[in-house]
Design goal:
214 residues; alpha+beta; eight-stranded antiparallel beta sheet; 8 strands; globular
Amino acid sequence: MSGRSPREALELADFRARVAGLYLECAGEGADAVAEFRSRRDRLFAEHPSSALTAEQKAGFEGLPYFPHDPAARVTCELGPPDRDGGLAIDSGGEDGVVRYARVGRLETPWGGLTLFWTEGYGGNLFLPFRDATAPAETYGAGRYLTDAIKGTFAGGLEVPSPGADPLAVTLDFNYAYNPSCAYNSRWACPLAPPENRLDEPIRAGELKFPGAA
């Protein structure tokens, strides 16, 4: 919270609540759900004072760019044990410093394996960053997220099984893949996809590289 005024703190809290509501209300399966989600996300980026865009970027904003919806980009994978021991530390490059993660397990997708992480510390939650072969030509060069649930991005990109389910089948929908805030401008610093979550195959679904990045 360093450097934020009381107004900015309350605006950010409101933004986080609106993001969570957007995911819980709109993020579902199919082209119509994805289209409604994207439309509402565009409005949030354009209008909210705590969105990732600067005032200059908002002035010319006409919507975030995306790949067309692809039904094949929604897959269900069994969550297996992690393929390596220990945790992971990522230097965010910003005020958060080094963020530590625990490896929850490994998801074998049609495009390669991904590690699902848990953000450690107070308020921790699931985190799934990835970088695929569309970067950097089509998508943000440092990768995208399927979920960073500590920030309210529930459902959509990652759907967890019901409690007690066996096997642990996790649904990933790459139509909801999105850019971290640092993809838009240099005001932000973000944890990025580690080597174990870098895929050699392209996934042409979800958010594209932002053309007005600053």
